[in-house]
Amino acid sequence: xxxxxxxxxxxxxxxxxxxxxxxxxxxxxxxxxxxxxxxxxxxxxxxxxxxxxxxxxxxxxxxxxxxxxxxxxxxxxxxxxxxxxxxxxxxxxxxxxxxxxxxxxxxxxxxxxxxxxxxxxxxxxxxxxxxxxxxxxxxxxxxxxxxxxxxxxxxxxxxxxxxxxxxxxxxxxxxxxxxxxxxxxxxxxxxxxxxxxxxxxxxxxxxxxxxxxxxxxxxxxxxxxxxxxxxxxxxxxxxxxxxxxxxxxxxxxxxxxxxxxxxxxxxxxxxxxxxxxxxxxxxxxxxxxxxxxxx
Amino acid sequence: xxxxxxxxxxxxxxxxxxxxxxxxxxxxxxxxxxxxxxxxxxxxxxxxxxxxxxxxxxxxxxxxxxxxxxxxxxxxxxxxxxxxxxxxxxxxxxxxxxxxxxxxxxxxxxxxxxxxxxxxxxxxxxxxxxxxxxxxxxxxxxxxxxxxxxxxxxxxxxxxxxxxxxxxxxxxxxxxxxxxxxxxxxxxxxxxxxxxxxxxxxxxxxxxxxxxxxxxxxxxxxxxxxxxxxxxxxxxxxxxxxxxxxxxxxxxxxxxxxxxxxxxxxxxxxxxxxxxxxxxxxxxxxxxxxxxxxxxxxxxxxxxxxxxxxxxxxxxxxxxxxxxxxxx
Lengths: 295, 328
What we know:
A: alpha+beta; 4-stranded mixed beta sheet; two-stranded antiparallel sheet; 8 helices; globular; B: mainly alpha; 11 helices; about 70% helix
């Protein structure tokens, strides 16, 4: 046994970090730049090549073949055997009351978005994993070690995005590895490689953030007032995502939480109250011991 | 220029006009009715992979064990030998069953020992595993020494040691469930440890009252009279804190479990006080308190799962927080 935090800080994977990236904070002295995904949903065409490429490369088993009736989405959501998920949203579009619009612009607008593990800077799954099966890689990503996970399921309820899940067949937790094996060989992840429209962009996180800021500014200037970046901000509730998104509507429309906060931010406070409650119980025990038996 | 119409109920799939409609006792705490959008009504977070009855059963048994060890130490020092023995044996039995439940709940039970691969304060499950690893043998030694009379001095030391570790065993499970993304647990993290400490104490007191004549179970009665009101108050504060998210705690199956638990707690408290000279009343009170503790844990557990299953409990509070901050 080692008194380690499996490459995490003692209380959480990233309280105020003084500008250190997660890999450095996790103890990697000399490491490659942090990489991630920028998923620009404005150019997603819903082809699901990312879903297929991910399954093929990572040998992820079949995850159900039902028709859901949820537009073209029969994948439903991320899970133990679904590491990329394309969401389909059909929205009625109406002309703005003040400005008469060409009739062709009315009707339905399609939102399509490829969801994936966010590889959070402050990662709840990593924090709560009791075995050290989940760890931070030198690329700043979060990966499960299949030979260590004992299927306790703690990560499943801890993830604020509902990404990681336990697979029935082997009883273990699984999620996107950001193609850790491909990164090691200097290749980009399979989903990004397969994406025909560059909706999924892979690269050093710093560069992706710059690119995303330009893109969202362009879209807004072009009249897409609701275009917004999601999880790009290092000051948000998860310290920013290693995978972040450009969305054309509010996050919850895509099934994403509007303001996720990593649960372990409250853990010091939780332990404080546990400590006080335990102290109260111990004091009660002492009080019971002081009462002498009479008769 | 066209725009996507905002704020229309039919705008996006899964836009439901429900959420937080129920009247609550205190209108000042009511949050305004909220419309919210979701993706086809799908949950945002995953329901924890923890099974029923394994995990809620463990919450109950772990509490019973931890608080029983506290009661055993108190009873032993104050000269209530029979009660101390019952509590020690109860603690050993409960913690043994807990261990079985915990291992059984793992996806890969044969790898349970991986729990002791690292020590991580950021993981309440890791902390709990180490606590259990320390507590189990000590509680076992205390019970075995008491039953067999072997090594009485070591037995007393083990009794006190288990009494010291017991409060941790009884309360860390609150951290375990609150340190998740489950709204109905996480948002209750300031009150849950006190609720669990109270519930665990009621269970331990209940075991003593159930198995011993009133005169021999006096410390158990004292514990019940302290713990039951504390638990009831903690639960009230918890529900108040949760506001809209408290809905599953008050409705449906978990609501029924928790209401039954409350009635049994109140009845058990009354019986413990009134039955100080009546064995039957005292025993009935003990059984009520034990049952109440189990129902409380199952109720809290299932209420949490319900808040994970319905996206409104995740989305509405976060949307409100985000709007208040003026993001977008």
